[in-house]
Recover the amino acids of this structure.
């Protein structure tokens, strides 16, 4: 048996295991945690876009939230203006994000390190505010209301009563599984190895015959597709608007990526679960000494910041290491 | 290659350990006892109500007092034995006036805190992101602190949502007619925020017969940006176009910034006209105070500003509701800022109305029963307002009447001409007429126990 097909089978088994586990959780958890888990899966897809871009190919983006917004708005416009079903709208969202990624990638191919980080940060700030500039199309600062709708009849006839949160989780699950399967396969492929070569030493990769710019653009496009997918799913919770995709969302995803491990798929999953469930854990842990509203509101952010610092100091495999590594070879 | 630099897509052992860990913790979570089968949030001893509002952020000043006032009134009711023996518990979530946070915190209120009903949520653009979800779940969405008519005029779309303010259309039609009749030759302009609140108000003034020209006599700004960007360019446009009377349809923090910015620009329109939700005197003075403006100067800026209200002015020292609510506020409000003002009065009144409705719905409290009671007994629900409540099966609008006043030098809104005249109209194109509604007397213990 070849090594590639062995990897493929392992990835398939893991993806099936993952699906079965989340499906089991969708039945066992209460609606609140079903909703939280579905957000964690959306963030998992979003963080995978960072794993591909930063973890695998060494390019830094602080603007994944903007690409999520592209996906969200494309889907909302498709649903509201063209009457698309959510499934077609999701496909449209991914397509729109791929296009946006192509444009961004063309610019990004010329930049690296802090310059790339700065550019993507500006994009994260600029794209959501376009919605307020073109209010009649994008709904201004209120945004556009879309949602997952009611669970389809075939599902309720199959499973009995399906709650809104359970439906949201079940609708998100196939996309998370696809993202997991696709990422684990591509990272084990020739393409994935070429991305790593690019990350570890751009000059060596170039000397080995790799087309650096084309590879960079390609990674950006794939990563943007993931971000767009995460964005439309996140928007389908109820609304697509500038305040749904603020700059803090991009940074939250990055926090999840670093906390979990920016170069690992399992790390992306752990990071997503951590950023979503941390506030609940903190609330649960701090319930006994009931802090005042002022403190309680800021406690989760403080703890995740602390964790972030500890991760970067104790586990040098994060962004700081990536930057250092790049600098050393330039 | 350095091991640290290798990419570890997925390790079988890691994933299996992860799966096992999650499965075990799920078993632990799901083995907890289930709750009772009746409507969530109501038990023999408690009614849990949920509320969303900006407790922090640019739009929070003033409105962040409403929840503490409501909780103060409910604590007072609880101290008197509660509602049929049930204590009311209010769970509040800060959404910072950001729709993304409103969605998340609504999920938390519904699924984690298991609220029986939403009450008094503040903000049009934030509430719009959750109103559909709250309604499809059949959760009562009581007395929303938004005057956006789109929430209330079609109960088929939002069957469980009831207003907590008069609609912006009703108020703007009434004030618009007054301006048109009183100042027929003056050039009237408007500054509004670009959301359904601002647009709804603009529609009301236009229906009343006022005309505006975009970017010349009608200028707008993005809600929430007033603090960081200021409103200089908008006011400069109004000044350049010779606007003599400026209407402001915006949140309280924007009103204060607009009036003070105009003063800095040397722009002195003959009259400022401010919609009721943006004209609270204490908020106005607090915001300007934080920018170094003394109370005497801010009182001077406020003096003469025209506004409208459905309620008595908080400064009316002899109004029996004002006296009673003020006392309850002193004794029971535990919020960080409980200074008596419009926001506190509004919060107290929302809680007073909710208490009346919860008593009216009876001992066997259900979500359906409560919605049905309010729909069928709109006129019986007690309120401190000078306006009747409009709740019926065809509309869920709250206050249908307003009186017009101007702020005096002591920051009290006083009826123009000395005598209070109540005007009424609908959220459509109906005429503005004088109302002769008389508010019922306050119950002895300031708790309306339903009809």
């Amino acid at each position: 048996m070849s090594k590639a097909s062995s990897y493929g089978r392992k990835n398939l088994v893991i993806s099936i295991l993952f699906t079965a586990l989340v499906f089991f959780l969708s039945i066992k958890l209460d609606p609140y945690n079903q909703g939280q888990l579905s957000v964690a899966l959306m963030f998992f897809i979003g963080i995978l876009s960072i794993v591909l871009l930063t973890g695998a190919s060494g390019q830094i983006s602080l603007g994944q939230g903007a690409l999520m917004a592209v996906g969200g708005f494309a889907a909302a416009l498709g649903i509201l203006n063209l009457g698309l079903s959510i499934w077609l709208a999701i496909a449209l969202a991914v397509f729109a994000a791929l296009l946006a990624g192509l444009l961004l990638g063309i610019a990004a191919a010329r930049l690296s390190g802090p310059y790339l980080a700065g550019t993507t940060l500006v994009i994260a700030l600029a794209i959501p505010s376009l919605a307020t500039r073109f209010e009649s199309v994008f709904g201004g600062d209120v945004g556009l209301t879309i949602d997952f709708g009611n669970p389809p009849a075939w599902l309720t006839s199959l499973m009995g009563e399906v709650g809104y949160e359970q439906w949201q989780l079940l609708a998100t699950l196939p996309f998370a599984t696809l993202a997991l399967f696709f990422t684990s396969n591509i990272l084990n492929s020739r393409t994935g190895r070429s991305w790593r070569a690019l990350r570890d030493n751009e000059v060596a990769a170039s000397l080995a015959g790799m087309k650096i710019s084309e590879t960079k653009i390609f990674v950006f496009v794939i990563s943007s597709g993931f971000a767009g997918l995460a964005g439309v799913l996140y928007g389908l919770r109820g609304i697509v608007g500038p305040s749904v995709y603020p700059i803090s969302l991009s940074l939250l995803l990055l926090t999840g990526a670093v906390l979990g491990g920016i170069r690992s798929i399992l790390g992306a999953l752990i990071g997503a679960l951590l950023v979503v469930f941390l506030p609940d854990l903190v609330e649960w842990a701090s319930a006994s000494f009931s802090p005042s509203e002022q403190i309680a509101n800021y406690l989760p952010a403080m703890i995740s910041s602390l964790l972030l610092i500890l991760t970067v100091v104790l586990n040098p495999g994060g962004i700081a290491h990536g930057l250092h590594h790049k600098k050393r070879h330039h | 290659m350095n091991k640290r630099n290798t990419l570890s897509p997925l390790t079988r052992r890691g994933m299996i350990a992860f799966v096992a860990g999650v499965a075990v913790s799920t078993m632990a979570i799901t083995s907890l006892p289930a709750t009772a089968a009746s409507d969530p949030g109501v038990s023999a001893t408690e009614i849990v109500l949920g509320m969303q509002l900006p407790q922090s952020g640019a739009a929070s000043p003033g409105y962040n007092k409403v929840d503490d006032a409501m909780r103060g009134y409910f604590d007072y009711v609880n101290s008197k034995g509660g509602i049929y023996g049930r204590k009311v518990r209010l769970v509040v979530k800060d959404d910072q006036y950001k729709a993304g946070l409103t969605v998340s915190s609504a999920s938390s209120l519904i699924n984690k805190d298991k609220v029986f009903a939403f009450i008094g949520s503040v903000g049009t653009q934030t509430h719009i992101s959750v109103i559909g979800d709250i309604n499809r779940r059949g959760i009562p969405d009581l007395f929303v602190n938004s005057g956006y008519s789109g929430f209330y005029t079609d109960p088929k779309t939002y069957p469980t949502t009831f207003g907590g303010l008069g609609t912006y259309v009703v108020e703007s039609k009434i004030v618009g007619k007054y301006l048109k009749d009183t100042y027929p030759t003056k050039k009237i302009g408007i500054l509004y925020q670009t959301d359904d609140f601002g647009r709804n108000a603009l529609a009301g003034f236009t229906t009343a017969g006022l005309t505006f020209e975009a970017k010349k006599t009608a200028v707008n700004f993005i809600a929430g940006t007033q603090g960081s960007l200021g409103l200089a360019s908008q006011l400069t446009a109004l000044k350049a176009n010779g606007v003599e009377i400026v209407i402001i349809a915006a949140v309280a923090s924007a009103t204060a910034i607009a009036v003070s910015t105009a003063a800095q620009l040397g722009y002195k329109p003959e009259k400022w006209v401010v919609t009721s939700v943006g004209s609270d005197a204490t908020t106005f003075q607090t915001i300007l105070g934080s920018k170094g403006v003394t109370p005497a100067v801010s009182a001077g800026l406020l003096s003469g500003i025209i506004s409208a209200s459905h309620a008595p002015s908080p400064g009316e020292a002899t109004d029996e509701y004002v006296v009673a609510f003020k006392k309850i506020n002193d004794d029971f409000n535990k919020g960080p800022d409980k200074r008596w003002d419009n926001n506190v009065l509004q919060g107290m009144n929302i809680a007073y109305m909710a208490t009346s409705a919860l008593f009216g719905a009876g001992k066997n409290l259900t979500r359906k029963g409560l919605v049905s009671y309010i729909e069928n007994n709109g006129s019986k629900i007690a309120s401190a307002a000078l306006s009747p409540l409009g709740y019926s099966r065809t509309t869920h609008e709250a206050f249908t009447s307003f009186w017009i006043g101007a702020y005096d030098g002591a920051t009290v809104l006083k009826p123009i001409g000395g005598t209070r005249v109540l005007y009424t109209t609908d959220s459509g194109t109906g005429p503005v007429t004088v109302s002769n509604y008389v508010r019922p007397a306050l119950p002895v213990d300031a708790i309306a126990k339903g009809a």
